[in-house]
Amino acid sequence: MSWLLKYFLSHNTINANLKVVFVGDTNQLPSVGPGNVLKDMISSEIIPTTELKENFRQSDEGVIIPLAKKITEGELPQLNDGPDFVFKKITDEESALEEIMAVFRRLDRNFNIFNIQVISPIKNGVLGVNNLNKEIRACVNPAVSSKPSIGPFRLGDKVMVVKNNYDKEVFNGEFGQVIEVNAKRSLAVKIHESGRVINFKSDELNYLRHAYACTVHKSQGSEFPFLIMVLSSSHNIMLRRDLLYTGITRTQTKLMLLSDYTTLRRAIENNIVENRYSSLLEYLKFSNFVSIGDTVKLKDRLNDEVIEYTVVEEDEADVLNSKISFKSPIGKALLKREVGDMFELTTNGNRNVFEILSVDTNSNSY
After folding, report:
1. HEC profile for the chain?
2. Would you write out the chain's pLDDT as a tens digit for each of its 366 residues?
3. Of 27, 94, 158, 275, which alpha carbon lies 20 to 30 A from 336's?
4. Whether residue 236 is found in the same domain as residue 313
5. Which domain covers residue 146, as residue numbers?
6. ∠ CA 365-297-283 to the nearest 5 degrees?
7. Which of these three, 254, 284, 314, is where a domain ends?
8. Cα-Cα end-to-end distance for the chain
9. Are residues 69 and 87 in the same domain?
10. Residue 154 resides in a domain
11. How far apart are alpha carbons 43 and 46 in whole angstroms?
């Protein structure tokens, strides 16, 4: 979310007449970047918020919706197999890996690579993303003489964009497939959702990673027809309720969960929310209040006159240009008030009654 906001703001695409609607889920993992934007916006109680309760991703008759609900409530759900859910109890990492590979070995040769996705909390280890990608790739897209390669990628590989590239208009988290490797040391990737074909030169390959498996964090915001999620006791500090919830809710049609009851219980009981200290929450709570740097439109109730002042530091005051010091009588009267407030001010024996019509916050002061 943070890079998206930055993109909009830096391109001046948000103006006073535009309404911005944020859609998200506070039960999921917070952003990898700084802050906890969605949670702070909701907690401020300043921004109108609606809770969406009807699920359109999974069927009401399935197991996944009640499974996710139980997890958010801190309960270990019944792990009964259903039309959309299979639970595989694992005893060690090697057997879990074998369960995953057995699924891929049974697939039809012409299967759609984007219809199945494996996710894991970590990158390293037997059940980490790096090893899973290596094993799955060797099974479904093995190295043969008819498949040219460049760097770590070969024709047919499933890949993910891992860094934003605004020139190419491809963004972190987009999936694609290598459809061409040419002699000029570049490859062409067909982006799954848009169908666009993007060329990457040999020095741009760091924008891509293999994506037969990806981390739960990287899967956030995506959805997959058939999802395989592995959660092992070795994943240790990554065993968290929000991570488990985020993972299973990436499923569209069917979920295979490989874990054990003790590990799942540890994850569900670990609901310690990471404290992220930013000034966004406080800023939102006081966004309607006048502070230094704000431009305030006032109505003099006694003579029906509308005037405008900008509240500034003492050394920036310029009354002729309607810049008033925050230490002046009217500056002191305005601070910490909000739109709609009325106040009385007497200066030089003259009584005035003002109403605050609007407060234009100076973003540079934040």
Report:
1. CHHHHHHHHHCCCCCCCCCCCCCCCCCCCCCCCCCCHHHHHHHCCCCCCCCCCCCCCCCCCCCHHHHHHHHHCCCCCCCCCECCEEEEECCCHHHHHHHHHHHHHHCCCCCCHHHEEEEECCCCCCCCHHHHHHHHHHHHCCCCCCCCEECCEECCCEEEECCCECCCCECCCCEEEEEEEECCCEEEEEECCCCCEEEEEHHHHHHEEECCEEEHHHHCCCCEEEEEEECCHHHHHHCCHHHHHHHHCCEEEEEEEEECHHHHHHHHHCCCCCCCCCCHHHHHHCCCECCCCCEEEEEECCCCEEEEEEEECHHHCEHHHCEEECCCHHHHHHCCCECCCEEEEEECCEEEEEEEEEEECCHHHC
2. 555 666 666 666 666 667 778 888 878 887 666 677 778 888 877 778 888 877 766 556 678 888 999 999 999 988 988 889 999 999 999 999 999 999 999 998 889 999 999 999 999 999 999 999 999 999 999 999 889 999 999 999 999 999 999 899 999 999 999 999 997 789 999 999 999 999 999 999 999 999 999 999 999 989 999 999 999 998 888 999 999 999 999 999 999 999 999 999 999 999 876 666 677 777 777 666 888 889 999 999 888 899 999 999 999 999 999 999 999 999 999 988 888 899 999 877 888 899 999 888 764 443
3. 275
4. no
5. 63-269
6. 30
7. 284
8. 19
9. yes
10. yes
11. 8
This prediction's pTM: 0.74
Residue 155 lies in a domain: yes
Q: Does residue 356 fall inside a structural domain?
A: yes
Residue 351 lies in a domain: yes
Read off the CATH number of the domain in which 102 is found: 3.40.50.300
- Same domain as 256, residue 113: yes
Could you tell me if 173 and 76 lie in one domain?
yes
Q: How many domains does the chain have?
A: 3
